[in-house]
């Protein structure tokens, strides 16, 4: 008997019996079976899905009276009235009165005298984006933010939130979700026609990824290394590798015109007080000359404060976005703890754009340089305030943040801050707020100077202030039983004034995916069925819903697929609307946007998820070659490639079970298709997907 | 291709703070078995334990930005879990009253084979269970447990001794 052992030990060594007893207790749990729902893999999936369902029931940052006293001011487009309006009701009144068909500016722009509303929770407050007058001003904002965090901590002293910054990151997961390009993405380089590029959000604006190709080589981020693989012949050849220091964490790489840019975050450890050290992050871009790929030559390192978030490339210039957290505990004199640096120098106050509220704790830092002359930084700006989803059009960088009941607003909102870019020069243009939050970066789109957005507007219960999640199942919210989500569409002009809007669409549903294509916008909302809405946006003052197609399931990603065709990748849902039946592909006929039809569909049986909804860069799409590929998860992860044919619908042309759950990229160059995961590359013929080579790096 | 498995904790935390579910799961993967065992032993019921851990995951993921740099992920999430367990126990009405309950059947028959040491453990009151479970499944010392429970270290130390003493007495009685 085990107990005898215990007693024996106990009898002999009195000190030991406690440990022995604990050990026995520990061993008694050895056979405990962990529920499948708690396995890390399952948890990853749940958390990813959750990012779709974000906010609900979740109002974190709230409203201090302090904030009501506010800032920023705003200059209307046409005239410059200064209206520190008490008319905080303006937006709300308008919003409650409008319904699905009405347009025209609610509350703000269109109405005289309200071109600028101030901070207090009006539906929108547009305004000029203002630079800091000095570092002291910034310091005050940070302290103000800190005070608010502390107030929150008291309110919710359950211990789970621990006060600090439970805020916005919570709602949007801090997550920048980036998403992909318009028309024939995959062939941003169609002119050369010979190789595929990363599926990007905005056509003509380059993005970094884990794998890049220039048609001659593959550049692969592989752990702490970047491997360069020659693909000039059928037999792949490992040409060289670049290894980073241990304190550098590679995020992505970018290749253009014989230059390789390695983007990473470097952490510097600082000995703090009382033995609590802390890390300071720097985002770095190492630029290499790879004209001889077997011997990459480093040209320079461009650095800035904060951890790497994303980058864009346009007209030979690289734009790097990082996030920097201000240290609220820093003394006023410790400027570098709360003001970001670029290239080793503090960013001047005049280059720091201040947030709409009177407080903040983090920045988006943007630095630009030309690939031709990377040694010289072209420009740096810091946008003070939390960043969420970034969207970069061909002319502007939009930094958005989801707001959950800030300043007494009774619905979720999105702040939008616009910084223009051209040949490396950055300039703050405007900022505003609208009701509702974005699903991802496809929900915001610029076209001919107008910004179009589709948002889901969620009521916020300000009496409670903070409503942490209590359950994984948040499909219904008992707290806001009578108040349901609605969806809104906005058209904003260059100064971010609303020119037209549609509110209260699809009550109790949420936006799952969106795609704006020129003068038409498509978006999918979902609760029970999947209405694919089409909106006519040709008149910015009068956006109009012209069609809605209801089909089972929902699309999580939409991609233009040639003339009059729109590809949807999402999930099928059974008739009881309870479980998903599998990944679903839909081809929509959008040749008449007012009468959209589902031409064809295909279900991948026994799959439960794809990467598509979370990372558009994981999608391989080439419309001209009529191929698209992605990873789907079922019992095992499988990479699928499909083509589409008007007669026969979707055809699976290739599938490959993947060894693990790691990131996978499919791409082609010439007449070969490459599948890259981790340190392994497989080459196939593009014509019939016959395997021809593989290489382990 | 980011290498999650070989990434240092602070890098995973940074990524998790950006909403990277994969990074969060990697942090979680290191300790999830202990989290579940802790919850199972404290709540004494598999469904409650599962609920508590699920809620902890969500709460931790959504609030990871409040994790201060100097705090370890493990201690932080254990603290959250402990709060969740308390809530679950309050809601479930399955709470055992106190030490005179040692004759009560194990609430989870699957574990009958560990009847001895587990039923002795189950006879502890809620806070005793938490203290002992923190030690056994979290590997924490009394002063660390005190920090997590917001108690003073001496109190925790003596409560833990008494709890173990209680268990020993029960085991001896059962044995004799």
TrEMBL record, chain A:
Q: Superkingdom of this entry's organism?
A: Bacteria
Mark out the compositionally biased spans (Polar residues). 182-198
Region labeled Disordered — which residues? 89-127, 159-199
The record, for Pfam families, names: Beta_propel (PF09826)
What spans are recorded as compositionally biased (Low complexity)? 94-127
Q: What is the protein name given in its UniProt record?
A: Beta-propeller domain-containing protein
InterPro entries named in the record = Beta_propeller_containing
Give the stretches traversing the membrane.
Answer: 58-82
Q: Which UniProt keywords apply?
A: Membrane, Transmembrane, Transmembrane helix
Which chain positions lie within coiled-coil regions? none
Task: Please verify whether the record's keywords include Transmembrane.
Answer: yes
Taxonomy of origin reads: Bacteria, Bacillati, Bacillota, Clostridia, Eubacteriales
Q: Does the keyword Disulfide bond apply?
A: no
From TrEMBL, chain B:
Q: Keywords assigned by UniProt?
A: Sigma factor, Transcription, Transcription regulation
Tell me the Gene3D superfamilies matching this sequence.
1.10.1740.10, Winged helix-like DNA-binding domain superfamily/Winged helix DNA-binding domain
Name the CDD domains for this protein.
Sigma70_r4
What SUPFAM superfamilies does the annotation carry?
Sigma2 domain of RNA polymerase sigma factors (SSF88946), Sigma3 and sigma4 domains of RNA polymerase sigma factors (SSF88659)
RNA polymerase sigma factor 70 region 4 type domain spans which residues? 116-167
- Residue limits of the RNA polymerase sigma-70 region domain? 27-94
Q: Locate the transmembrane regions by residue number.
A: none
Highest rank taxon of the organism? Bacteria
Would you identify the family this protein belongs to, as annotated? Belongs to the sigma-70 factor family. ECF subfamily.
Spell out the protein name for this chain: RNA polymerase sigma factor
